[in-house]
Specification:
Helix content is 34%, strand content 22%. By secondary structure, the protein is of the alpha/beta class. It binds 2-succinylbenzoate and magnesium ion. The site of 2-succinylbenzoate (OSB) has 11 residues, from loops.
């Protein structure tokens, strides 16, 4: 049966982060993004979230390219083609190259609407059956080792199951040695956001003494060849983030031996349908997966939680609680973490309500399109 879509709305929001977040590329103080909303003729409302940043440091997409793609290409495709299931959206968008985060922002809202129309959770609609998920936390680069240790102490005490530390040349081996010394039992990993090259092999090999759970994206954002070379020389498992945009990328990386682990981000791979395909492939091939984060507000966070209920998400992800990022999140209830565990919501769709008052407070622009 065709889903009787009615209207698409782009809510543009600007939210200040509680705590600036620094990576090898720069510091974030706030998040500028879209909450996407799709309605049907029966009054159901589905929500998604765009995850691109204001500048293209992580991938080529930005908030403005997301707007351009959604408004001028992707929403018209949805308006002109009947859909019976959200799985069809991927195929409809195939004529548009790249722009995965823009595609995902729209596809996600349609998945939520679909699950709400069926009266089931988004997790169930995707085929997930966990009732709780284990989570870790990603910490930005800190001004000093002391301040990093203080932050880790705080979040280990809060119960997070794995700590991710951002590294870059000059803030890496020595820092991680100190972290390991202070936290001998904690699951620790490092994320380089592509800050190294194969010239750094000998330097990176020093990480093998630190019993890290993995190193994430050490080499170029678009590489899978050099990562395979590096993985052969490292005992520490490599996890790919930036390099994996699709099922095909994952298949090739696995075939080449470029990684032992994949971080799946819904936005990076173009939506939930592709994310599930990558998950299923990894399960078949024995590659561990976990759910990455893009400093999402509540709607994106809820999508991450639903995806993480799939069985091959065997490692704690980056989906921390709302209060790690926001003074006040846009959903109700907010996402809370108890002893490193998030209880998966049981209400239909994403399982959280939009807090309309808070949404309005952060809204800087709004555009509605007939479908
Ligand atoms: O590389 O995983 C990353 C944040 C922004 C962009 C890229 C990354 C990150 C994080 C934080 O590591 C994840 C989160 O807490 O949402
Ligand atoms: Mg990463």
């Amino acid at each position: 049966m065709v889903i009787p879509l009615q209207e698409f709305t782009l809510h543009r929001l600007n939210m200040a982060l509680k705590d600036p977040f620094t990576t090898s590329f720069g510091t974030f103080q706030e998040k500028d993004f879209f909450v996407t909303e799709v309605t049907d003729e029966n009054g159901h409302r589905g929500f998604g979230e765009s995850v691109a940043f204001t500048s293209p440091w992580y991938s080529e997409e930005t908030v403005e390219t997301n707007l351009h793609m959604m408004r001028d290409f992707l929403i018209p495709i949805i308006a002109n083609n009947p859909i019976t299931h959200p799985k069809e959206v991927n195929g409809l968008f195939a004529s548009i190259k790249g722009n995965n985060m823009a595609k995902s922002a729209i596809e996600g809202a349609i998945w939520d609407l679909y699950a709400k129309r069926k009266g089931i959770t988004l997790a169930k609609a995707l085929g997930g059956d966990k009732t709780e998920i284990d989570v870790g936390i990603s910490l930005g680069i800190e001004p000093s080792v002391e301040s990093l240790i203080a932050k880790i102490t705080h979040y280990v005490e809060a119960g997070y199951k794995r700590i991710k530390v951002k590294i870059k040349p000059g803030f890496d081996v020595e820092v991680l040695k100190e972290v390991r010394k202070q936290f001998p039992q904690t699951a620790i990993m490092a994320d380089a956001n592509s800050a190294y090259t194969l010239d750094d092999v000998d330097h990176l090999k020093q990480l093998d003494d630190l019993n890290l759970t993995m190193i994430e994206q050490p080499l170029a954002h678009d590489d899978i060849i050099d990562h395979a070379t590096l993985q052969k020389q490292l005992q520490t498992p490599i996890c790919l983030d930036e390099s994996i945009h699709s099922y095909e990328d994952a298949r090739k990386a696995i075939e080449l031996g470029s990684c032992e682990i994949i971080n799946i981000k819904i936005g990076r791979v173009g939506g939930l349908t592709e994310a599930k395909k990558i998950h299923d492939l990894c399960k078949e091939k024995g590659i561990k997966v976990w759910c990455g984060g893009m400093l999402e507000a509540g709607v994106g966070r809820a999508h991450n939680i639903a995806l993480t209920t799939l069985s091959q998400f065997v490692l704690p992800g980056d989906t921390a609680g709302s209060n790690r990022y926001w003074q006040k999140d846009i959903i109700e209830p907010e996402v809370t973490v108890q002893d490193g565990i998030i209880t998966v919501p049981t209400e239909p769709g994403i399982g959280y309500e939009i807090n309309e008052e808070v949404l309005k407070q952060y809204t800087v622009d709004m555009q509605t399109f007939d479908l």
